[in-house]
Amino acid sequence: MIDEKELELNIRNISASVIHIRQTKLPDPINIGNAGSFFKNPIIEKPLYDALSLIYEDLPHYHVDLGSIKIPAAWLIEQCGWKGKRMDQIGVYERQPLILVNYGEGKGKEILKLSEQIQASIQKKFGIELAREVNVF
């Protein structure tokens, strides 16, 4: 039986729920180096969404306005086979494809190259430009 106090909406319970979700999906930076969410969710024009939805019936989306649709970047990355992919000391986190991770001795240039490979595969498969959320200097 579910305790009604656990279901009560209050700041403490909402905060605990958000923390729990993050802990199950995101790597602990103490254990695996990462920069958090690496890519932005792209916003595409409705005609492109309409064409893609004919091919991908399960294409998740969110209407931004009458002519624009937001597509989850995580879904796009996973569809291109990147989720959980590891390349030596860097990779795409196995529980959340938006997160690029450094397993120890990876270099920033390697993370940047991986992000470029991901972007190129999204562009090739879906015709969508995937922008980085992190700042690269």
Can you walk me through this structure?
With 137 residues, the protein is of the alpha+beta class. It has one domain: UDP-N-acetylenolpyruvoylglucosamine reductase, C-terminal domain (Uridine Diphospho-n-acetylenolpyruvylglucosamine Reductase, domain 1, Alpha-Beta Complex). Helix content is 40%, strand content 18%. The protein has 5 helices and 7 strands. It has helices spanning 4-7, 11-25, 46-55, 73-79, 108-126, and strands at residues 33-37, 43-45, 62-65, 68-70, 86-87, 90-92, 99-102. A 4-stranded antiparallel beta sheet has the order 1-7-6-5, covered by helices on one side. A 3-stranded antiparallel beta sheet has the order 2-4-3. Strand 6 (90-92) and strand 7 form a beta hairpin. The protein is globular, with a radius of gyration of 17 Å. The mean pLDDT is 88.
